[in-house]
Design goal:
This protein has 14 helices and 13 strands. By secondary structure, the chain is α+β, with helices and mostly antiparallel strands. A hairpin with a 5-residue loop joins strand 7 and strand 8. It holds the Pfam family RNase_T. Keywords: Exonuclease, Hydrolase, Nuclease.
Length: 435
């Protein structure tokens, strides 16, 4: 994998580091009794893959059938392989003092150390990085972080899952992808590699008040999917929030607000479907000034080709359905909300059909609470509630579901969900395009 990195202080920082990405295949997860049957190692130096090694290891025990099936490594494959004691020096020499990387360091590093202890050798003292945890921090709401899926969404090569060298290579390519992101996001401390939270999320970016407007607009113009702009003042007080498709009219208005509002922090957040941005904005709506509430509704109607006179400013209109299903920003993920209590805390992010049972349970549980009058009512301002109602009546890039008197089952959702998925493919190109 070759990557073009901009030559910056962040580049210099990461360019100076050496990494050893490794993966173990074992007879099981018990550190006391199980043995290594394969190890794959990849060396990264100066932000390039420079070397690799792999060893089949004779475990001196029967490889359990489920491990043989998982890894395709049979007892016969390791009959003539070396014992771990015979190759340990070569493995440790390859690792050297590099930063160790695995897609699950909480397994690979302790297991490898347990082998060293059994050999009466000192444990590893190298620093270690987990690309699995990196993924969790950098892509919030990701439901699956396994290497197969990460390779798929980042277009990485990963041909043989659960083979040590192939898993190590996929982890190495994922690490290089993340290192390029750290460089673009101007990493300044090596420690951020170990805990990349609240600064390196791929779906959002924060600008301080001294950031030039031109730089902010330049960032926004690169976006091809809906996003949310939020301005916050001292102590995090919300001063302005607006979802956008990135049209010229929207950009002109947002730029005016950025210039005129004395904010402390400006946050850009990719939201996937525009309606998701509206939901997030609605939680801030009551915190902005009354004149700005009216102005925001007027502009939302203008930008979405809707009749402002249809938006009642005082009386709450009834939502046209009970549930709404939307594409999620992340590929192959979806999100469902109860429209009668529209709040992010009540969302369910799911994959289909993987989580179809969870989806059915969610709908039945929320439907029962609605029927019993126990569903917490949302406290949306009437203006934003009524705008959402009108928006739902005019747009079609979502699926609405009504609760039933009887409990629904998986077959009841199959046709509507699959039709929605076929007619609304995820077009957000995330995480290829990130903030």
């Amino acid at each position: 994998m070759t990557t073009n990195f901009p030559k910056t202080p962040s580049y210099d920082l990461l360019h100076s580091l050496t990494f050893c990405v490794f993966d173990l295949e074992t007879t099981g997860g018990n550190h006391q009794h199980d043995k290594i049957i394969e190890i794959g190692l990849i060396k990264i130096k100066e932000l390039k893959i420079v070397d690799q090694k792999s060893f089949l290891i004779k475990p001196d025990m029967h490889i359990p059938e489920f491990i043989q099936k998982l890894t395709s490594i049979k007892d016969a494959d390791v009959t003539d392989a070396p014992l771990i004691e015979e190759v340990m020096d070569e493995i440790l020499e390859f690792m050297g003092d590099a930063i160790l990387v695995a897609h699950n360091t909480s397994f690979d590093v302790p297991f490898f150390n347990s082998v060293l202890r059994r050999m009466d050798r000192p444990e590893l003292t190298n620093k270690s990085i987990c690309t699995y945890l990196m993924t969790k921090y950098m892509i919030p709401n990701l439901l699956s972080s396994n290497l197969n899926y990460m390779s798929k969404i980042f277009d990485l090569q990963h041909q043989k899952a659960h083979r040590a060298l192939d898993d190590a290579m996929a982890s190495a390519e994922l690490l290089l992808k993340y290192l390029s992101i750290f460089i673009h996001k101007k990493i300044s401390k090596v420690n951020s590699l170990y805990y990349p939270k609240n600064k390196f999320e791929l779906d959002r970016i924060n600008f301080k008040k001294d950031m030039p407007l031109d730089a902010i607009i330049e960032q926004i113009t690169t976006l091809t999917s809906p996003f949310l702009v939020t301005l916050k003042g001292l102590e995090g007080v919300v001063l302005f929030s607006m979802p956008s498709h990135g049209t010229a009219e929207e950009m002109k208005y947002i730029a005016e607000k950025i210039r005129s509002i004395p904010y402390e922090i400006l946050t850009l957040k990719l939201v996937g479907p525009y309606f998701q941005g509206l939901i997030e904005m609605s939680s801030y709506f009551s915190k902005i000034s009354a004149p700005l509430e009216i102005e925001t509704i007027k502009k939302l109607c203008e930008f979405n080709g809707m009749d402002e006179t249809l938006i009642d400013h005082h009386n709450m209109d009834e939502m046209p359905s009970d549930f709404i299903v939307l594409n999620h920003l992340i590929p192959e993920q979806y999100v469902i909300f109860p429209l009668k209590s529209l709040h992010q805390k009540l969302e369910l992010v799911f994959r289909y059909p993987t989580h179809q049972n969870k989806l059915v349970q969610y709908i039945n549980s929320k439907s029962a609470r609605m029927g019993q009058g126990k569903m917490k009512k949302d406290h949306l301002n009437p203006m934003i509630n009524n705008f959402l109602v009108q928006y739902l009546k005019t747009k079609r890039d979502f699926l609405m579901i009504d609760r039933q008197a009887a409990k629904i089952a998986n077959p009841d959702l199959k046709d509507p969900i699959e039709t929605f998925m076929a007619e609304n493919p995820n077009a957000y190109d995330f995480p290829h395009l990130y903030l």
